[in-house]
Amino acid sequence: MAAIHSKNTKPELIVRKWLWSHGYRYRLNVKSVPGKPDIVMRRYRTAIFVNGCFWHGHKLRKAQSEELRVKSEEFTFDYENSKCCKIPKTNREFWVKKICRNMERDQEEYRILQENGWHCIVVWECQLKSKLVEHTMQQVELQLNKNFLSIYQHKFVPYIETEEEYLKAAEREEELKNR
Ligand SMILES: [Zn+2]
Question: What is the mean pLDDT of the chain?
Answer without folding.
Answer: 82
